[in-house]
Design a protein that fits this description.
This protein is α+β, with helices and mostly antiparallel strands. It folds into 3 domains: 119 residues, conserved putative lor/sdh protein from methanococcus maripaludis s2 fold (Beta Barrel); 101 residues, Elongation Factor Tu (Ef-tu), domain 3 (Beta Barrel); 76 residues, Helix Hairpins (Orthogonal Bundle), CATH 1.10.287.470. Helices cover 32% and strands 34% of the residues. The protein has 5 helices and 19 strands. The strands form 3 sheets. A 6-stranded antiparallel beta barrel has the order 2-9-12-11-10-13. Strands 6-5-3-8 form a 4-stranded antiparallel sheet. The protein has a 3-stranded mixed sheet with strand order 18-1-19, with helices on one face. Helix 2 packs antiparallel against helix 3. The longest helix is centred in the first third of the chain and has 35 residues. The protein is elongated and about 140 Å long. The relative contact order is 0.17. Belongs to the membrane fusion protein (MFP) (TC 8.A.1) family. One of its GO terms (molecular function) is transmembrane transporter activity. This is Efflux RND transporter periplasmic adaptor subunit.
Length: 412
Protein backbone atom coordinates (compact mmCIF):
# COMPACT_ATOMS: atom_id res chain seq x y z
CA UNK A 1 0.00 0.00 0.00
CA UNK A 2 2.78 2.35 0.86
CA UNK A 3 4.56 1.68 -2.45
CA UNK A 4 1.33 2.10 -4.39
CA UNK A 5 0.66 5.47 -2.74
CA UNK A 6 4.16 6.59 -3.49
CA UNK A 7 3.72 5.65 -7.13
CA UNK A 8 0.46 7.57 -7.38
CA UNK A 9 2.00 10.58 -5.70
CA UNK A 10 4.88 10.50 -8.17
CA UNK A 11 2.49 10.32 -11.11
CA UNK A 12 0.41 13.16 -9.72
CA UNK A 13 3.53 15.34 -9.42
CA UNK A 14 5.06 14.49 -12.75
CA UNK A 15 1.85 15.02 -14.82
CA UNK A 16 1.49 18.77 -14.14
CA UNK A 17 5.21 19.20 -14.80
CA UNK A 18 4.91 17.48 -18.17
CA UNK A 19 1.94 19.62 -19.13
CA UNK A 20 3.82 22.80 -18.20
CA UNK A 21 6.84 21.71 -20.24
CA UNK A 22 4.63 20.88 -23.25
CA UNK A 23 2.86 24.25 -22.99
CA UNK A 24 6.21 26.06 -22.83
CA UNK A 25 7.46 24.28 -25.90
CA UNK A 26 4.26 25.15 -27.77
CA UNK A 27 4.47 28.84 -26.83
CA UNK A 28 8.14 28.95 -27.77
CA UNK A 29 7.32 27.35 -31.12
CA UNK A 30 4.55 29.89 -31.77
CA UNK A 31 6.81 32.79 -30.87
CA UNK A 32 9.59 31.50 -33.04
CA UNK A 33 7.16 31.01 -35.94
CA UNK A 34 5.82 34.57 -35.74
CA UNK A 35 9.27 36.03 -35.72
CA UNK A 36 10.29 33.75 -38.57
CA UNK A 37 7.33 34.55 -41.01
CA UNK A 38 8.45 36.11 -44.33
CA UNK A 39 7.38 39.76 -44.82
CA UNK A 40 4.10 40.39 -46.76
CA UNK A 41 4.31 41.46 -50.45
CA UNK A 42 2.96 44.69 -52.07
CA UNK A 43 -0.82 45.19 -51.89
CA UNK A 44 -2.75 44.70 -55.11
CA UNK A 45 -4.60 47.89 -56.12
CA UNK A 46 -6.64 48.96 -59.12
CA UNK A 47 -5.61 52.26 -60.69
CA UNK A 48 -6.80 54.66 -63.38
CA UNK A 49 -4.19 56.66 -65.27
CA UNK A 50 -5.36 60.23 -65.80
CA UNK A 51 -5.43 61.83 -69.22
CA UNK A 52 -6.43 65.40 -70.11
CA UNK A 53 -9.76 65.86 -71.96
CA UNK A 54 -12.08 68.74 -72.81
CA UNK A 55 -15.10 68.57 -70.54
CA UNK A 56 -18.36 70.50 -71.03
CA UNK A 57 -19.85 72.14 -67.94
CA UNK A 58 -23.53 71.31 -68.14
CA UNK A 59 -26.46 72.50 -66.07
CA UNK A 60 -30.02 71.25 -65.89
CA UNK A 61 -32.41 74.12 -65.27
CA UNK A 62 -36.22 74.24 -64.93
CA UNK A 63 -38.26 76.03 -67.55
CA UNK A 64 -41.63 76.39 -69.24
CA UNK A 65 -42.61 76.25 -72.88
CA UNK A 66 -44.06 79.39 -74.45
CA UNK A 67 -45.34 79.92 -78.01
CA UNK A 68 -43.01 81.30 -80.65
CA UNK A 69 -45.72 83.75 -81.73
CA UNK A 70 -49.20 84.51 -80.34
CA UNK A 71 -52.02 86.35 -82.10
CA UNK A 72 -55.22 87.26 -80.25
CA UNK A 73 -58.01 87.59 -82.81
CA UNK A 74 -60.15 90.73 -82.23
CA UNK A 75 -62.65 92.55 -84.49
CA UNK A 76 -61.63 95.88 -86.02
CA UNK A 77 -65.18 96.71 -87.10
CA UNK A 78 -68.49 96.01 -85.42
CA UNK A 79 -71.27 93.81 -86.72
CA UNK A 80 -73.04 90.46 -86.60
CA UNK A 81 -70.98 87.26 -87.09
CA UNK A 82 -72.34 85.44 -90.14
CA UNK A 83 -69.91 82.50 -90.27
CA UNK A 84 -67.14 80.86 -88.30
CA UNK A 85 -64.86 79.11 -90.79
CA UNK A 86 -62.33 77.13 -88.73
CA UNK A 87 -62.21 74.02 -86.57
CA UNK A 88 -61.27 74.66 -82.95
CA UNK A 89 -57.89 73.17 -82.12
CA UNK A 90 -56.91 72.87 -85.77
CA UNK A 91 -54.09 74.44 -87.74
CA UNK A 92 -54.66 77.63 -89.71
CA UNK A 93 -52.51 79.42 -92.28
CA UNK A 94 -51.53 83.06 -92.34
CA UNK A 95 -54.30 85.02 -94.08
CA UNK A 96 -56.89 82.25 -93.68
CA UNK A 97 -60.48 83.47 -93.13
CA UNK A 98 -61.67 82.81 -89.58
CA UNK A 99 -64.88 84.87 -89.14
CA UNK A 100 -67.17 86.65 -91.57
CA UNK A 101 -68.98 89.74 -90.27
CA UNK A 102 -72.12 90.89 -92.11
CA UNK A 103 -70.55 93.09 -94.85
CA UNK A 104 -73.73 94.79 -96.21
CA UNK A 105 -73.27 98.11 -94.38
CA UNK A 106 -69.57 98.28 -95.28
CA UNK A 107 -70.24 97.30 -98.87
CA UNK A 108 -72.80 100.14 -99.16
CA UNK A 109 -70.31 102.62 -97.70
CA UNK A 110 -67.70 101.46 -100.17
CA UNK A 111 -70.07 101.86 -103.11
CA UNK A 112 -71.10 105.34 -101.95
CA UNK A 113 -67.46 106.42 -101.58
CA UNK A 114 -66.72 105.05 -105.03
CA UNK A 115 -69.56 107.10 -106.54
CA UNK A 116 -68.45 110.23 -104.71
CA UNK A 117 -64.99 109.81 -106.17
CA UNK A 118 -66.38 109.46 -109.68
CA UNK A 119 -68.43 112.63 -109.24
CA UNK A 120 -65.41 114.54 -107.93
CA UNK A 121 -63.25 113.35 -110.84
CA UNK A 122 -65.92 114.47 -113.37
CA UNK A 123 -66.17 117.89 -111.76
CA UNK A 124 -62.40 118.14 -111.79
CA UNK A 125 -62.28 117.54 -115.51
CA UNK A 126 -64.82 120.36 -116.19
CA UNK A 127 -63.05 122.87 -113.99
CA UNK A 128 -59.65 121.94 -115.43
CA UNK A 129 -60.81 122.70 -118.98
CA UNK A 130 -62.42 125.98 -117.87
CA UNK A 131 -59.27 127.06 -116.07
CA UNK A 132 -57.17 126.34 -119.18
CA UNK A 133 -59.52 128.38 -121.45
CA UNK A 134 -59.57 131.32 -119.04
CA UNK A 135 -55.79 131.27 -118.96
CA UNK A 136 -55.69 131.87 -122.73
CA UNK A 137 -58.48 134.46 -122.70
CA UNK A 138 -57.03 136.58 -119.93
CA UNK A 139 -53.96 137.22 -122.01
CA UNK A 140 -56.10 138.94 -124.70
CA UNK A 141 -58.46 140.50 -122.17
CA UNK A 142 -61.26 138.09 -123.20
CA UNK A 143 -62.14 137.58 -119.53
CA UNK A 144 -61.38 139.63 -116.49
CA UNK A 145 -58.48 138.73 -114.27
CA UNK A 146 -60.93 138.05 -111.44
CA UNK A 147 -62.78 135.45 -113.50
CA UNK A 148 -59.46 133.83 -114.36
CA UNK A 149 -58.45 133.65 -110.71
CA UNK A 150 -61.82 132.16 -109.73
CA UNK A 151 -61.47 129.47 -112.42
CA UNK A 152 -57.98 128.54 -111.17
CA UNK A 153 -59.19 128.36 -107.55
CA UNK A 154 -62.17 126.20 -108.50
CA UNK A 155 -59.81 123.80 -110.33
CA UNK A 156 -57.55 123.48 -107.27
CA UNK A 157 -60.57 122.89 -105.02
CA UNK A 158 -61.78 120.16 -107.38
CA UNK A 159 -58.36 118.48 -107.10
CA UNK A 160 -58.69 118.50 -103.29
CA UNK A 161 -62.20 117.06 -103.56
CA UNK A 162 -60.85 114.18 -105.65
CA UNK A 163 -58.10 113.49 -103.11
CA UNK A 164 -60.64 113.48 -100.24
CA UNK A 165 -62.94 111.19 -102.19
CA UNK A 166 -60.03 108.75 -102.80
CA UNK A 167 -59.23 108.72 -99.06
CA UNK A 168 -62.87 108.08 -98.20
CA UNK A 169 -62.98 105.24 -100.72
CA UNK A 170 -59.82 103.69 -99.24
CA UNK A 171 -61.29 103.92 -95.72
CA UNK A 172 -64.49 102.24 -96.91
CA UNK A 173 -62.43 99.52 -98.62
CA UNK A 174 -60.46 98.85 -95.43
CA UNK A 175 -63.62 98.60 -93.31
CA UNK A 176 -65.11 96.23 -95.86
CA UNK A 177 -61.96 94.10 -95.72
CA UNK A 178 -62.10 94.11 -91.90
CA UNK A 179 -65.47 92.41 -92.09
CA UNK A 180 -63.40 89.35 -93.10
CA UNK A 181 -61.42 88.45 -89.97
CA UNK A 182 -58.31 86.51 -90.99
CA UNK A 183 -55.38 84.96 -89.11
CA UNK A 184 -52.25 87.13 -89.10
CA UNK A 185 -49.95 84.12 -88.46
CA UNK A 186 -49.84 80.39 -89.12
CA UNK A 187 -50.34 78.14 -86.12
CA UNK A 188 -52.82 76.25 -83.98
CA UNK A 189 -56.07 78.03 -83.10
CA UNK A 190 -57.83 77.51 -79.80
CA UNK A 191 -61.49 77.58 -78.88
CA UNK A 192 -63.80 80.30 -80.15
CA UNK A 193 -65.45 82.65 -77.67
CA UNK A 194 -68.31 83.55 -80.07
CA UNK A 195 -70.65 81.76 -82.45
CA UNK A 196 -72.68 82.78 -85.46
CA UNK A 197 -75.13 85.59 -84.61
CA UNK A 198 -72.90 87.21 -82.00
CA UNK A 199 -72.64 91.00 -82.06
CA UNK A 200 -69.06 92.22 -82.17
CA UNK A 201 -67.82 95.65 -81.15
CA UNK A 202 -64.58 97.48 -81.83
CA UNK A 203 -62.22 97.42 -78.86
CA UNK A 204 -63.89 94.58 -76.97
CA UNK A 205 -61.70 93.11 -74.23
CA UNK A 206 -62.11 89.37 -74.86
CA UNK A 207 -60.46 87.97 -78.01
CA UNK A 208 -62.54 85.91 -80.39
CA UNK A 209 -59.85 83.21 -80.49
CA UNK A 210 -56.09 82.81 -80.07
CA UNK A 211 -53.62 81.49 -82.65
CA UNK A 212 -50.27 80.17 -81.39
CA UNK A 213 -47.27 79.15 -83.46
CA UNK A 214 -45.80 76.03 -81.86
CA UNK A 215 -43.07 75.10 -84.35
CA UNK A 216 -40.56 76.25 -83.35
CA UNK A 217 -41.36 76.95 -79.71
CA UNK A 218 -39.62 78.85 -76.94
CA UNK A 219 -38.52 77.39 -73.61
CA UNK A 220 -37.95 80.07 -70.98
CA UNK A 221 -35.60 78.99 -68.20
CA UNK A 222 -34.07 80.80 -65.24
CA UNK A 223 -30.67 80.57 -63.58
CA UNK A 224 -29.32 82.04 -60.39
CA UNK A 225 -27.44 85.25 -61.09
CA UNK A 226 -24.81 84.23 -58.51
CA UNK A 227 -24.11 81.00 -60.36
CA UNK A 228 -23.94 82.79 -63.71
CA UNK A 229 -21.39 85.23 -62.26
CA UNK A 230 -19.32 82.35 -60.90
CA UNK A 231 -19.31 80.65 -64.30
CA UNK A 232 -18.21 83.88 -65.97
CA UNK A 233 -15.38 84.30 -63.45
CA UNK A 234 -14.18 80.75 -64.06
CA UNK A 235 -14.67 80.47 -67.81
CA UNK A 236 -14.93 84.04 -69.11
CA UNK A 237 -17.47 85.25 -71.62
CA UNK A 238 -18.03 81.76 -73.05
CA UNK A 239 -20.36 81.08 -70.11
CA UNK A 240 -23.98 81.49 -71.18
CA UNK A 241 -23.03 82.42 -74.75
CA UNK A 242 -25.88 82.40 -77.27
CA UNK A 243 -26.00 79.65 -79.86
CA UNK A 244 -25.02 76.71 -77.64
CA UNK A 245 -27.11 73.52 -78.01
CA UNK A 246 -29.72 72.69 -75.36
CA UNK A 247 -31.34 69.32 -74.70
CA UNK A 248 -34.95 69.41 -73.45
CA UNK A 249 -36.15 66.81 -70.92
CA UNK A 250 -39.94 66.39 -70.85
CA UNK A 251 -42.17 65.94 -67.81
CA UNK A 252 -42.18 62.14 -68.12
CA UNK A 253 -38.38 62.00 -68.14
CA UNK A 254 -38.03 61.39 -71.87
CA UNK A 255 -35.79 63.55 -74.03
CA UNK A 256 -37.18 65.77 -76.78
CA UNK A 257 -36.29 64.43 -80.19
CA UNK A 258 -34.56 67.59 -81.43
CA UNK A 259 -32.12 69.77 -79.48
CA UNK A 260 -32.77 73.47 -79.10
CA UNK A 261 -30.47 76.47 -79.26
CA UNK A 262 -29.89 79.17 -76.67
CA UNK A 263 -31.22 82.40 -78.16
CA UNK A 264 -30.15 84.92 -75.53
CA UNK A 265 -29.46 85.52 -71.85
CA UNK A 266 -31.37 88.42 -70.35
CA UNK A 267 -29.44 91.34 -68.90
CA UNK A 268 -31.96 92.01 -66.12
CA UNK A 269 -32.05 90.15 -62.81
CA UNK A 270 -35.46 89.47 -61.29
CA UNK A 271 -35.53 91.42 -58.04
CA UNK A 272 -37.88 88.90 -56.42
CA UNK A 273 -36.06 85.66 -57.28
CA UNK A 274 -32.50 86.81 -58.00
CA UNK A 275 -32.56 84.84 -61.25
CA UNK A 276 -31.66 85.64 -64.85
CA UNK A 277 -33.95 84.53 -67.70
CA UNK A 278 -32.62 82.49 -70.62
CA UNK A 279 -34.61 81.73 -73.77
CA UNK A 280 -34.16 78.58 -75.86
CA UNK A 281 -35.56 78.07 -79.36
CA UNK A 282 -36.62 74.44 -79.90
CA UNK A 283 -37.88 72.75 -83.10
CA UNK A 284 -41.30 71.23 -82.38
CA UNK A 285 -42.64 69.61 -85.58
CA UNK A 286 -44.82 67.06 -83.76
CA UNK A 287 -46.09 69.56 -81.16
CA UNK A 288 -44.73 67.44 -78.30
CA UNK A 289 -44.04 70.67 -76.43
CA UNK A 290 -47.17 72.64 -75.54
CA UNK A 291 -47.40 76.16 -74.10
CA UNK A 292 -47.21 76.14 -70.31
CA UNK A 293 -45.58 72.70 -70.14
CA UNK A 294 -42.94 72.29 -67.40
CA UNK A 295 -39.63 70.95 -68.76
CA UNK A 296 -35.96 70.80 -67.81
CA UNK A 297 -33.28 72.20 -70.07
CA UNK A 298 -29.82 70.61 -70.10
CA UNK A 299 -27.33 73.08 -71.54
CA UNK A 300 -23.58 73.38 -71.82
CA UNK A 301 -22.60 76.72 -70.33
CA UNK A 302 -18.82 76.41 -70.57
CA UNK A 303 -16.01 74.04 -71.50
CA UNK A 304 -12.89 73.13 -69.52
CA UNK A 305 -9.81 72.51 -71.62
CA UNK A 306 -7.29 69.85 -70.51
CA UNK A 307 -9.49 68.74 -67.61
CA UNK A 308 -8.67 65.84 -65.30
CA UNK A 309 -11.51 63.58 -64.17
CA UNK A 310 -11.17 61.36 -61.12
CA UNK A 311 -13.71 58.65 -60.14
CA UNK A 312 -15.75 59.65 -57.13
CA UNK A 313 -14.81 56.53 -55.16
CA UNK A 314 -11.15 57.60 -55.26
CA UNK A 315 -11.78 60.93 -53.48
CA UNK A 316 -12.11 61.15 -49.70
CA UNK A 317 -12.35 64.04 -47.28
CA UNK A 318 -10.17 64.88 -44.28
CA UNK A 319 -11.66 66.14 -41.01
CA UNK A 320 -10.79 69.64 -42.25
CA UNK A 321 -12.86 69.07 -45.38
CA UNK A 322 -9.91 68.79 -47.77
CA UNK A 323 -10.29 66.45 -50.72
CA UNK A 324 -7.58 63.81 -51.00
CA UNK A 325 -6.73 60.92 -53.31
CA UNK A 326 -4.25 58.07 -53.08
CA UNK A 327 -1.85 57.77 -56.00
CA UNK A 328 0.93 55.38 -56.94
CA UNK A 329 4.12 57.39 -56.53
CA UNK A 330 7.76 56.73 -57.26
CA UNK A 331 8.92 53.23 -56.49
CA UNK A 332 5.30 52.03 -56.71
CA UNK A 333 4.57 53.32 -53.23
CA UNK A 334 1.23 54.80 -52.18
CA UNK A 335 1.13 58.49 -51.39
CA UNK A 336 -1.63 60.95 -50.49
CA UNK A 337 -2.35 64.02 -52.60
CA UNK A 338 -4.49 66.96 -51.53
CA UNK A 339 -6.58 68.02 -54.53
CA UNK A 340 -9.12 70.69 -55.41
CA UNK A 341 -12.35 69.07 -56.63
CA UNK A 342 -14.92 71.80 -57.20
CA UNK A 343 -17.66 70.10 -59.23
CA UNK A 344 -18.88 66.71 -60.42
CA UNK A 345 -19.13 65.63 -64.04
CA UNK A 346 -21.31 62.54 -64.26
CA UNK A 347 -19.86 60.02 -61.77
CA UNK A 348 -16.48 61.74 -61.55
CA UNK A 349 -14.86 64.72 -59.88
CA UNK A 350 -13.34 67.51 -61.94
CA UNK A 351 -9.93 68.12 -60.34
CA UNK A 352 -8.32 71.49 -60.98
CA UNK A 353 -5.29 71.25 -58.66
CA UNK A 354 -3.13 68.55 -57.09
CA UNK A 355 -2.90 66.08 -59.99
CA UNK A 356 -1.38 65.95 -63.45
CA UNK A 357 -1.92 63.92 -66.59
CA UNK A 358 -0.25 60.52 -66.26
CA UNK A 359 -0.80 60.19 -62.50
CA UNK A 360 -2.03 56.77 -61.42
CA UNK A 361 -4.95 57.17 -59.02
CA UNK A 362 -5.92 54.24 -56.82
CA UNK A 363 -9.62 53.42 -57.11
CA UNK A 364 -9.68 49.79 -55.84
CA UNK A 365 -8.05 48.35 -52.72
CA UNK A 366 -7.93 51.66 -50.82
CA UNK A 367 -8.96 49.99 -47.57
CA UNK A 368 -5.72 47.96 -47.40
CA UNK A 369 -3.29 50.74 -48.35
CA UNK A 370 -1.50 53.20 -46.13
CA UNK A 371 0.76 56.09 -47.23
CA UNK A 372 4.27 54.84 -47.96
CA UNK A 373 3.25 51.20 -48.45
CA UNK A 374 4.48 49.41 -51.59
CA UNK A 375 1.67 48.53 -53.95
CA UNK A 376 1.21 46.45 -57.08
CA UNK A 377 -0.87 48.55 -59.51
CA UNK A 378 -3.08 47.05 -62.20
CA UNK A 379 -5.91 48.32 -64.36
CA UNK A 380 -9.10 48.89 -62.40
CA UNK A 381 -11.85 46.38 -63.11
CA UNK A 382 -14.54 49.10 -63.27
CA UNK A 383 -13.41 52.03 -65.37
CA UNK A 384 -15.14 55.40 -64.96
CA UNK A 385 -17.55 56.46 -67.68
CA UNK A 386 -16.46 59.43 -69.75
CA UNK A 387 -19.22 62.07 -69.61
CA UNK A 388 -21.34 62.53 -72.71
CA UNK A 389 -20.57 65.54 -74.82
CA UNK A 390 -16.79 65.54 -74.29
CA UNK A 391 -15.31 67.90 -76.87
CA UNK A 392 -13.75 66.26 -79.90
CA UNK A 393 -15.47 62.87 -79.60
CA UNK A 394 -18.67 61.19 -78.63
CA UNK A 395 -19.07 59.45 -75.30
CA UNK A 396 -18.72 56.01 -76.88
CA UNK A 397 -15.57 57.06 -78.68
CA UNK A 398 -13.98 58.72 -75.66
CA UNK A 399 -14.39 55.86 -73.18
CA UNK A 400 -11.56 53.72 -74.65
CA UNK A 401 -9.11 56.57 -74.05
CA UNK A 402 -9.40 56.05 -70.28
CA UNK A 403 -9.40 52.30 -70.65
CA UNK A 404 -6.26 52.32 -72.77
CA UNK A 405 -4.55 54.58 -70.25
CA UNK A 406 -5.35 52.18 -67.43
CA UNK A 407 -4.26 49.19 -69.51
CA UNK A 408 -1.00 50.90 -70.32
CA UNK A 409 -0.48 51.43 -66.60
CA UNK A 410 -1.07 47.74 -65.96
CA UNK A 411 1.51 46.78 -68.53
CA UNK A 412 4.30 48.76 -66.90
Amino acid sequence: MTARKQTMTFKQGILPLALMLALGVTLAGCGGGQGGMPPQGPADVGVVTLSAVSVPIERELPGRATPYRVAEIRPQVGGIVQKRLFAEGGEVKAGELLYQINPEVYQASFDSAKATLAKAEANLMTLKLKAERYKELVSINGVSKQEHDDAQAAWLQAQADVAAAKAALESARINLAYSRITSPIAGVIGKSSVTEGALLAVGQAAPLATVQQLDPIYVDISQSSAELLRLKREFGQQAGKAGIPVQIVLEDGSTHTQPGKLEFTDVTVDAGTGAVSLRVLVPNPKHDLLPGMFVRARLQQAEVKDALLVPQQAVSRTPKGEATVMVVGSGDKAEVRVVEASRTVGNQWLVSKGLAAGDRVIVEGLQKVQPGMPVKPSAANTLPAVPAGVSGASSTASAPSVASAASASAGK
